[in-house]
């Protein structure tokens, strides 16, 4: 099931609907451009808390799961700790897919 979610993430990346990187994702949350934020499960506690708080404040759905290697590989880049989907359709599709898997520890 997680392979399907990561494939969907790759598809969104090819469509130009994924952004990555701490500062860019934070800006997209503030500007309401981010429709879903994904933080790697092996990210530091500070990083997870930062994005949990930021997403809670701006009411952006947050998903914590996978690991940094698989997130990076799914979008064709080296390790990624935080990604944001900027398209509501892809965000809904990914949320529906991951709600059926146990590899994601937190989704809001």
TrEMBL record:
Record's keyword terms, sorted:
Ribonucleoprotein, Ribosomal protein
Any single GO CC term annotated in Swiss-Prot or TrEMBL for this entry: ribosome
Q: Which domain of life is it from?
A: Bacteria
Q: Which InterPro entries match?
A: Ribosomal_eL30-like_sf, Ribosomal_eL8/eL30/eS12/Gad45
Q: Which SUPFAM superfamilies match?
A: L30e-like
Residues annotated as domain Ribosomal protein eL8/eL30/eS12/Gadd45: 5-92
| Protein's name according to its UniProt entry | Ribosomal protein YlxQ
Protein's organism: Paenibacillus physcomitrellae
Q: What is the lineage of its organism?
A: Bacteria, Bacillati, Bacillota, Bacilli, Bacillales
């Amino acid at each position: 099931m997680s392979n399907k979610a990561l494939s969907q993430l790759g598809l969104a990346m090819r469509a130009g609907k994924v952004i990555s990187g701490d500062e860019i994702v934070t800006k997209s949350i503030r500007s309401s451009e981010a429709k879903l934020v994904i933080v790697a499960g092996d990210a530091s506690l500070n990083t997870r808390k930062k994005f949990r708080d930021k997403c809670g404040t701006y009411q952006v759905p947050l998903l914590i799961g996978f690991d940094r290697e698989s997130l990076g590989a799914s979008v064709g880049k080296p390790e990624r700790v935080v990604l944001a989907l900027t398209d509501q359709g892809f965000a809904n599709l990914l949320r529906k897919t991951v709600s059926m898997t146990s590899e994601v520890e937190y989704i809001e």
